[in-house]
Amino acid sequence: MTASLISRPNVGEDAVQRLNNLANYHVDVLKNVGVSIGIDLPGSERIYVTAGHADRHGTTPVKKDHLFQIGSQSKTAVAMTLLLLERSGAVSLDDAVLDHVDLPIDRRITIRHLLMNASGLGEFTSAFVQRQLDPHITYAPRDLVAMALPQGQIFEPGDRFDYSNTGWVVAALAIEAVTGERYGDVIRRLILDPLQLKNTWFGGGAPTDRMMRGYIQSPVKSEPIDSSECLSWAYGAGDGVSNVDDMLDLFGALIKPDSNIGINLSDLTRQTAKHCDKPYFSLSFGTEYGLGVERRAWAGQEVWGHPGSTFSYVTSTWIDAAAKVVVTTCVTRNVSIDETDTALRYPREQLFAMTLNTAYAVAQQQHD
């Protein structure tokens, strides 16, 4: 199987080819379904690398225009939306959540706590019965919150950063309570339309015929479950659908001084929270978190952005503000519920570092 490679001639060809090889490796050796990668550099045409197919039947090669589930990258858009609502005077990030949404949660939890993953709320995804998992089941947002309540308050509100998908369900409910609109419609009005992002949806509505498809192998189902159209379980926490170009534009707007939405990266990173030595959610370890974005150093340089995962989609977008580099990645999988080697089939550190280092190599060659 040969990956499709689209790039400008004579701009870091060796680095781009190595990234191309890695994309092929993810499909041919690690047995993922498809890969889509985009790199945005100042003063240059975008670089795209794709591999594999849009479905497990191998009928359509992955193209840069294919849509995919962005998972927890949705959290960045939710945080940006609430920040804009605060600027309009509709809400304060320091308001108690219970001032806007009636839920059986700790009154000390503020909207800011939700957006910094510092609420201490339990994790609703822990309540899913893995062997009986079926993403086609429709969940109401309040049902998701209820699934987390038996875990109690994990830590004191504001005490630290620790991932909580439940907090983002509550954040989306707060958007709806404050505006009287569907939260996805508010994101479209305040962010997607001003940035002219026509290939991004939150809260449903994405055209399913344009999706890269991901699958779940379940011991209680004879055929793989196509999870590409099942997102009610991820409401507010990860139900976004987008493509490579829109993700580069959405996160890239944070480092453009003339952005139509008037939010920059410093607005989201002015206040941060840090993990504890033994976080409740293991992926929290090593992370510093602002408003809907996290700080990492995948390729030895400070980058801000967000990873994302749903049942069979794993994604990320990262910004190096100093180099004005933005990269985005998506891998679709045919994953078994009982699989114990998921991290080996998706070595995200390798993928993120290789993509960023490719961007740096291309940028350096252009400079030279």
From TrEMBL:
Record's keyword annotation contains Hydrolase: yes
Protein name as catalogued: Class A beta-lactamase-related serine hydrolase
InterPro entries in alphabetical order: AmpC-like, Beta-lactam-related, Beta-lactam/transpept-like
Pfam families in UniProt: Beta-lactamase (PF00144)
Cited PANTHER family: D-ALANYL-D-ALANINE CARBOXYPEPTIDASE (PTHR46825:SF7), D-ALANYL-D-ALANINE-CARBOXYPEPTIDASE/ENDOPEPTIDASE AMPH (PTHR46825)
Keyword Membrane: no
GO-annotated molecular function: hydrolase activity
Coiled coil: none
Domain Beta-lactamase-related: 34-346
Key words of the record: Hydrolase
